[in-house]
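Hi team,

Filling in the usual template for the complex we talked about on Friday. All components are listed, including any nucleic acid strands or ligand strings, so the model treats them as one assembly.

SUBMITTER: L.P.
PURPOSE: interface mapping
COMPONENTS: two
RESIDUES: 226
SEQUENCES:
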Amino acid sequence: GAGVSQSPRYKVAKRGQDVALRCDPISGHVSLFWYQQALGQGPEFLTYFQNEAQLDKSGLPSDRFFAERPEGSVSTLKIQRTQQEDSAVYLCASSLMAEASTDTQYFGPGTRLTVL
Amino acid sequence: RKEVEQDPGPFNVPEGATVAFNCTYSNSASQSFFWYRQDCRKEPKLLMSVYSSGNEDGRFTAQLNRASQYISLLIRDSKLSDSATYLCVVNKDYGQNFVFGPGTRLSVLP
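RESULT (copied from the run log):
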């Protein structure tokens, strides 16, 4: 069975470039999360979707970060004018239920972003 | 104080040993708790949820102490394949904002 997939797996961007990271959650999963994981750290919450609605974006570090899930399935995380501090692994996770607080999150393999 | 704290380790233990990790959290309103496992350069995977009464899954036992705001994970009879980083995860206020600790690295040695 298909798990969560993310693309690209690796992205190298020049400082100032815009990037778009894609997440395909498990089919039928209502909840979708984006996390940022720096080297040697745990994942940090960025944003949460319930179907197409972005219910929590409190973790987005700046207005350069934007996420969408227009049809309630695939999601895209966009980073504008990338900076070196944006270099990290970006993880997407999905869970089956709308009430995600007690539900298992299934993670994708992540996109490793390096900003030069 | 960070919201979720863990000893980063590494914990180097021989095969067959018993090892315990603790995790502390700062938000007393936190409602749900988990341990995730992350292998090197891989994605996190759920190891187990942590229930108020404590719970066991094979060689793994998780406990929650709400009064002291800490969670523990005990691994008995450790295997080489248990080598990984163990992430403590806390959910705030039944919301969707999950806070991960920095992880504790375990190496089980032959």
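MY TAKE: Chain A has no helices and eleven strands. The two ends of chain A are 37 Å apart (CA to CA).

Thanks, L.
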